[in-house]
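Consider the following assembly input.
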Amino acid sequence: DAGVIQSPRHEVTEMGQEVTLRCKPISGHNSLFWYRQTMMRGLELLIYFNNNVPIDDSGMPEDRFSAKMPNASFSTLKIQPSEPRDSAVYFCASRTLFDADTQYFGPGTRLTVL
Amino acid sequence: RKEVEQDPGPFNVPEGATVAFNCTYSNSASQSFFWYRQDCRKEPKLLMSVYSSGNEDGRFTAQLNRASQYISLLIRDSKLSDSATYLCVVMTGGFKTIFGAGTRLFVKA
């Protein structure tokens, strides 16, 4: 079975550019999480979707960050404009109602903003 | 104060040793507790859930003390393949997931 798929795996961009990160959750999973991991702050929850609806976005650092889930099989996290402090690994995770304890993480997108 | 606190280590142990990790959390309303494992430059993966009654999975034992707001993980008979970062995770409201900073373990031959 395919796990959570994220693209791109690596992204290098310049300050001020728009960055779009993509996630395809595991088929049949109804919840999706976006996380950011840095050495300084560890792993932080940015936003949580349930049945494609954003339930909690209190972790989104500022208005430059936005996330969408237009359907059950696709989500995006957009940063516009990007800044060097946004450099991090961004993980997407999904889970199913029938195994709510387990979040399945994608391989992550390593973002570097120069 | 961080919501979930762990000793960052590193813990350097020989193969076959027993090692224990501790974690404390600050939100008494937390409902679910987990240990995740993260290998270098990889994604986190669920190791085990943690229950008040304690739970065991092979060489791994997890305990939860709600009164003290304390979670532990015991690894017996350490293997080289156990080398990783162990993340203590607390969930509130069914989704609000807080990760600890992680404890690094190195198991040496």
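The mean pLDDT of chain A is 95. Ask yourself how this observation constrains the way the partners meet.
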